[in-house]
Design goal:
heterodimer; A: 330 residues; five-stranded antiparallel β-sheet; B: 749 residues; alpha+beta; Aldehyde Oxidoreductase, domain 4; 3 domains; 16 helices; 33 strands; Xanthine dehydrogenase, molybdenum binding subunit apoprotein (chain B)
Chain lengths: 330, 749
């Protein structure tokens, strides 16, 4: 029996894992494998060495000294989604997890792996079409192709691939931090800096060195997040990526003004999309449908659309207004 | 009243399926088995310039590579004819790897055979194939200017134009007209089991385990293409993981598997990958339709013009026939149905569940809903009023039931309380609406004579045989019931054998004809054997039944009893043993009525749906469906219900989710997996009611069985679209009705 040869190494420690991948430029970490194995089979990625990190002691979920939660990179999505401290303190994050993929996939998929999840762009995944993300400089087939599901925010003329994650949308809204271990030791990366927009280098998705391993995700203490929500709009009722999803956490003061707001969008961005413009437009302003609409307009003002995905602008605006209005009335 | 026929008997093959002991065609293990993998063309039009096999051959484990340079030439040119006709049934008038020309993306250009599927995949990836690419026409938009009106469809078997009266004049004179245009995305079948063929040669004799909806069609096709006697080709299929039309025709991979097995001198299993199942066994073609209705103020239809435009392959005039229902389900003196085609760089499209009439009926039934609103009439009553007692030729229906289906469905959905005003019911962010559609599907008598065999052993056990194949519809169960009923034995002593061309002929179970054909042949075989057994008994002076008239003998549970004196009886087994007969068998046959039989032939039904439409986001969720159908005699209501329910869910998927399109840059199907090509999941499935209206039919076979495979799908999407209108006031003119279509007012049309 012959096939493309791949060496498989199950790392027994974080140091071993980092050393093994660092030493081989054609290597890759393997966590839950729910995306990576697909991409291996499709020939999209072709590592010669797979370093399995599933045995590493990174499945913990613990409180941090500053009152937040540290999530081990190998914690499974389904476990995190149902952990009481997540459900109580960050319900929107729990909801985002439970609305992602299917239960079977969530039982396998890890939190660290989810941060590295690759786009569902069909041209990226087919392994053969021109794709700047897969093969830099080859072009982008999605620009004039079938792009109904593609991004309208954070795009470039090199790539319009949508970031597929749900939970990452929650994490950018929560200002989480990604902790990594590399050859040079531990470092922390604010999550919005962890997801790189395509710009001129769509193949570079994260500021990670080769061999640098995500070990944990830190979610800070954030009282407003106790009332957070995640709503996912999609063509079918389950088991599909978002057309548009909205994470929100809002506090309205007794004068009816928006005192605090965390807002992020999925399904529309090349990265999990923190709605900074909408947040800025609303903080300190009355929590009214008119102001919500104006904030949504501001957020989508620079949307870059194509005929097939132009509907997402209106869709996203309406989804934002509805979500914030419901937060006010609930 | 039969003790078995019409009973909701559980599937007799259920345990084999759920325990995994049932062998599918990709699970046949043979000594020395090799694994084949097709390599499809990476351009939609052009020429293979070079194929460098060196790296692939060096990869190891490779037994052979077939390309156009070494693939045997087919003995007879393939011609497109539906498998129901009982002739060779290649899915297209084309066989690949005969020359270097590429007609469509994914067309087989090489076949790698290796010691494992993984080896074959690795070697296939290492084949270096270069192409000369030419501009392709792969969509309607690409080829609109070259459209022409087809004269015939299906290789000349059907006229493409259906005309009576003067539709132009009638439309001009009509008091009310409705004119609607539609755009329909292509659909792919996606049975869970992708097509697979395992081929084994023994000298000149070939055995194929083929996941087919017709073993006989596979045998006829492969024998014709290879130029070998039918008697040298045996096709076996015991379990098929769904077909929905994708396995109704015999696509090139079946014959390629046989060619590959001969080439490498080993048995070969050739499985289509999931992406290849989007490029290798046809599809429901991208199409546009326009329908124009003319009617009087009283609601009587006076004119229907129904036109279809679709794209086909460069070598076949294929179109799903879209006008077989619209020409007759409602009475109308002036009718024009026509099919226009664009020849392009796709493979030949094919049958896909409720072929033709599902989208044809979507056009008709949404237009009828528009007409009802134009007239201010109730949509149910408008349909009942226009449904005629005769077909478009003036022939009475073999059986009808449509009005009863509509009335019963209306009860189930609560139609009487319905306020027809569109766009006025709101619950939260959702607008609520209900809709109705009529359903019909033609009964097509194009098959040859059907055969079955019944055999009883002298212990009373029975084997019933016919070559039918089990692809999930429950034929093993329902034919066991038919055999037991016909012979007068208990189901427990009877085994039904099928799925083998060595057994008596029945034709491919397609076009909703499987149950009709098979039950007729099986019934006749069982009845013939029963009559022979009774004849033996009454002529046997040692039998207590001796001297009775055969007509005064009834049989139940394997025992013949005098109808005059119930104390006079004898079992089949006793009679056979006493006469030293080890067994007795009979062949039964059924000759279908001629294609031109003077009867209207449709299976009728009615569909109702209730939807919730997100008022801002356009997302449609179906909350309730009710389908009522009149398929003649129902052999097994549990199986029939499953079939119809499955059809209705197909309709839901077609309405809201299913759609594929070709990427115009590459000529390739944009969606090629079940992650992106969306079909409904459990969470999409609402409360669904399925009921039957009983109708007797003495035309369609001795048991009066009409099919249930297609009609459950017909009208389902239209009922949903009409419900969306009732909810929102927006008319849907595109399928699928995605969020943006609904948000933007219903589509471009």
């Amino acid at each position: 029996m012959t096939m493309r040869p791949i060496t498989f190494f199950r790392a027994g420690s974080i140091d071993d894992a980092v050393a093994a991948v660092s030493a081989n430029p054609d290597s890759a970490f393997l966590a839950g494998g729910t995306t990576e194995i697909d991409l291996l089979r499709l020939g999209v990625i072709q590592p010669t060495l797979l370093v399995d990190v599933n045995e590493l002691p990174l499945t913990y979920l613990e409180d941090t000294e500053s009152g937040g939660v540290r999530i081990g990179a190998m914690a499974r999505m389904s476990d995190v989604a149902r952990a009481p401290r997540i459900v109580e303190r960050y319900p929107g994050m729990s909801q985002a997890l439970l609305l992602g993929a299917s239960e079977q996939l969530r039982n396998m998929a890890s939190m660290g792996g989810n941060m590295c999840q690759r786009t569902r762009c069909a041209y990226f995944r087919d392994g053969r079409s021109p794709c700047n993300k897969r093969e830099p400089g080859s072009g982008c087939s999605a620009l004039n192709g079938v792009n109904r599901g593609h991004a309208i925010l954070g795009t470039s003329d090199q790539c319009i691939a949508t970031h597929p994650s749900d939970v990452a949308v929650a994490l950018v809204a929560l200002d989480a931090t990604v902790r990594t271990m590399g050859p040079d030791g531990i470092r922390t990366i604010p999550i919005e800096q962890f997801f790189l927009r395509p710009e001129d280098t769509p193949s570079v998705e994260h500021p990670l060195e080769h061999g640098e391993l995500i070990v944990a995700i830190d979610v800070p203490d954030l009282p407003v997040a106790r009332a957070s929500r995640y709503v996912k709009h999609r063509d079918r009722a389950s088991y599909e990526f978002a057309l548009v999803s909205v994470f929100s956490a809002m506090r309205v003061d007794d004068k009816g003004n928006v005192a605090e707001l965390r807002l992020a969008l999925g399904g529309v961005g090349t990265v999990p999309w923190r709605a900074h413009r909408a947040e800025e437009a609303l903080i300190g302003r009355p929590a009214t449908p008119e102001n919500f609409a104006a904030a949504a307009d501001a957020e989508l003002a620079d949307a870059d659309t194509r005929p097939m995905n132009a509907f997402k602008v209106t869709f996203a605006k309406r989804a934002i207004v509805r979500e914030l209005s419901q937060v006010v009335t609930s | 009243m039969s003790p078995v026929l019409g009973k909701p008997v559980n599937r007799v093959d259920g345990p084999d399926k759920v325990t995994g002991t049932g062998r599918y065609c990709g699970e046949i293990v043979l000594p020395g088995l090799a694994y084949g993998l097709i390599v499809g063309a990476d351009v939609a039009k052009g020429r293979v310039v070079s194929i460098d096999e060196s790296a692939a051959r060096a990869a190891g484990g490779v037994y052979g590579i077939l390309t156009h340079r070494n693939t045997p030439k087919v003995a007879n040119a393939p011609h497109l004819i539906p498998s129901l006709a009982g002739q060779p049934a290649p899915g297209e008038s084309f066989f690949p790897m005969q020359d270097d020309v590429v007609h469509y993306w994914g067309q087989p250009v090489a076949l790698v055979v290796a010691d494992s599927l993984e080896s074959a995949a690795h070697a296939a990836a290492l084949l270096d194939i270069t192409y000369e690419e030419s501009p392709a026409v792969a969509t309607i938009e690409d080829g609109r200017k070259s459209a022409y009106e087809a004269e015939t469809l299906f290789g000349g078997l059907m006229p493409a134009r259906d005309e009576r009266g003067d539709v132009t004049a009638a439309l001009a004179a009509a008091e009310v007209t409705v004119d609607a245009s539609y755009r329909y995305a292509a659909n792919h079948h996606n049975p869970l089991e992708t097509s697979v063929t395992t081929a084994q040669w023994d000298g000149d004799r070939l055995t194929l385990w083929d996941s087919t909806m017709g073993v006989r069609a596979s045998q006829l096709t492969v024998a014709s293409l290879l130029g070998i006697p039918l008697s040298d080709v045996r096709v076996i299929t015991h379990f098929v993981g769904g077909g929905f039309g994708s396995k109704a025709m015999v696509w090139p991979h079946v014959t390629l598997a046989a060619m590959a097995a001969r080439h490498v001198g080993r048995p070969v299993r050739l499985t289509l990958t999931r992406p290849q199942s989007f490029t290798s066994n046809g599809h429901r073609e991208e199409q546009e339709q326009r329908i124009t209705l003319g009617a009087g103020r009283d609601g009587r239809l006076t004119a229907i013009r129904h036109q279809k435009l679709s794209i086909t392959s460069s070598f076949d005039d294929w179109a799903e026939p879209a006008t077989g229902v619209s020409t007759q389900i409602y009475g109308c003196d002036n009718y024009l149905g026509s099919h226009s085609l664009i020849k392009g760089n796709t493979m030949t499209p094919t049958f896909t569940r409720a072929p033709g009439e599902s989208l044809g009926s979507f056009s008709l039934e949404t237009a009828m809903d528009r007409l009802a609103y134009e007239l201010g009439m109730d949509p149910v009553e408008l349909r009942i009023m226009n449904h005629p007692p005769v077909d478009n030729h003036g022939n009475p229906w073999s059986s009808d039931g449509m009005a009863d289906c509509l009335r019963r469905g209306a009860e189930l959905i609560g139609w009487a309380d319905r306020d027809p005003t569109p766009g006025v019911r709101q619950e939260g962010d959702n607008l609520i609406g209900t809709g109705v559609a009529g359903a019909g599907y033609p009964v097509a008598f194009m098959m040859p004579v059907q055969h079955a065999r019944a055999r009883i052993f002298n212990d009373g056990s029975v084997v019933i045989q016919t070559s039918a194949q089990e692809f999930g519809i429950g034929v093993t169960t329902s034919m066991s019931q038919v055999g037991a009923d016909g012979l007068g034995v208990d189901m427990d002593v009877l085994r039904f054998e099928a799925g083998d061309t060595d057994l008596p002929n029945t034709t491919s179970a397609v076009g909703s004809m499987g149950a009709t054909m098979q039950s007729s042949a099986v019934h006749n075989a069982a009845r013939t054997l029963r009559n022979e057994l009774i004849a033996h008994a009454v002529a046997d002076d040692k039998s207590p039944l001796h001297g009775l008239s055969p007509s005064s003998v009834r049989v139940a549970d394997g025992r013949m009893t005098s109808t005059l004196d119930p104390s006079i009886s004898e079992s089949y087994a006793d009679m056979l043993q006493r006469n030293r007969l080890l067994d007795l068998e009979a062949l039964g046959s059924w000759t279908p009525p001629p294609f031109t039989t003077p009867h209207g032939l449709l299976t009728f039904g009615a569909q109702f749906a209730e939807v919730a439409v997100d008022k801002d986001l356009g997302l449609v969720r179906v909350r309730r469906m009710a389908g009522v159908f009149a398929p003649g005699r129902v052999l097994n209501p549990k199986l029939a219900r499953s079939q119809l329910l499955g059809g209705m869910l197909w309709g839901l998927g077609q309405a809201l989710l299913e759609g594929n399109q070709i990427d115009r840059q590459s000529g390739r199907w944009a969606l090629n997996n079940l992650g992106e090509y969306l079909v409904p999941v459990h969470a999409d499935i609402p409360d669904i009611q399925v009921e039957f209206v009983e109708v007797e039919d003495d035309v369609v076979g001795p048991l009066g069985v009409k099919g249930v495979g297609e009609v459950g799908q017909v009208g389902a999407a239209a009922a949903i679209a009409n419900a969306v209108f009732h909810a929102t006031g927006r008319r849907m003119s595109e399928l699928p009705m995605t969020a943006e279509v609904v948000m933007n007012g219903g589509g471009a049309g």
